[in-house]
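Postdoc handover notes: sequence design on the structure in folder B. Input tokens:
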């Protein structure tokens, strides 16, 4: 899998941020595994939601921006993400075929995720290993971030 120079630079910075906080991580480069993770994200968060008219194939986060799934947004979302345990989670990128698996990521912050980010990596998803919650950053200044937890919004 080939990443553009800017994306490689961002991954290096992200990995440095993770290591500096003692967060254990694995860079997932298997395209099929990453596709399966994205499909799982959609299966858990977009199941039963009409998505044919919200361009979900372009941006999975459109389920939030089109208000098809209730969530927290903006500063409230960032605050909830900060409080989330993040014991085991993934980082997925909308337009790249790589991902990260993280353990012991309680100290992970939005700043760690956006530090040195390149434009193509800006649409990213942090999701629990069990797909119970997700935190989404977008490239749009007026969309997101979004935080959704199944227990908060009664989707079991």
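Designed sequence:
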């Amino acid at each position: 899998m080939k990443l553009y120079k800017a994306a490689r630079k961002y991954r290096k910075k992200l990995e440095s941020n993770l290591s500096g906080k003692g967060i254990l991580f694995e860079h997932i480069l298997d395209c099929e595994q990453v596709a399966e993770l994205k499909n799982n994200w959609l299966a858990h968060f977009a199941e039963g939601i009409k998505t044919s008219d919200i361009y979900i194939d372009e941006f999975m986060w459109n389920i939030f921006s089109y208000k098809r799934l209730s969530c927290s947004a903006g500063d409230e979302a960032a605050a909830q993400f900060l409080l989330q345990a993040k014991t085991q989670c993934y980082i997925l990128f909308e337009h790249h075929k790589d991902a990260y698996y993280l353990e012991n990521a309680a100290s992970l912050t939005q700043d760690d995720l956006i530090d040195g980010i390149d434009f193509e990596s800006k649409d990213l998803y942090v999701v629990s290993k069990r797909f119970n919650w997700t935190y989404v950053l977008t490239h749009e200044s007026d969309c997101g971030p979004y935080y959704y937890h199944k227990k908060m919004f009664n989707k079991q």
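Context for whoever picks this up: The chain has one domain: 5-149. Don't rerun without checking with the PI first.
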